[in-house]
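REQUEST ID: PR-0412
SUBMITTED BY: lab tech R.K.
PRIORITY: routine
TASK: structure prediction, single protein chain
INPUT:
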Amino acid sequence: MSASRQALELKVRAKLELQRRKNERRTVYGIVDPEKGLTHAITSTKEGVWTETQDDIDIYIPAKAERVLTSNKRFIVLLGGRGSAKSVTVADMAITDAKDNQSKTYFLREFQSSIKNSVYSLVKEEISRFQLPGFTVQQQSIGYKDDQAFEFAGL
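STATUS: complete
OUTPUT:
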């Protein structure tokens, strides 16, 4: 085998190893204020304790959503107008919660005429955008590592 081929294979193996390590580590959230920009980064332990970190940021969320992210409440209701980043922020949080904690999320909307008109499409797009392995997109739900992670319904 030539030296250039060996070097290329070594690079590929290194890149795959970095991707594997990134997927195994806990998600790091960058907290962004509209006026101050990035204010800090946080991550949680397996025990659910949130701490500031200097690690590379995986996902950016608005500062107003930090309380939602760090809450230990079972049910959380968000209020706000159109374009206030609620759907994307919550989808991102739910995706990383499934990845980090194997949690399950049931998305409910007051009006939902079809799965196509639900947040299903958004969650599917965000998983693709983050290039997260282990997620399987099915017709009515989305799974993670052979378990159902997300379901969608109208009230």
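NOTES: Residues 27 and 96 are 7 Å apart (CA to CA).
REVIEWED BY: pending
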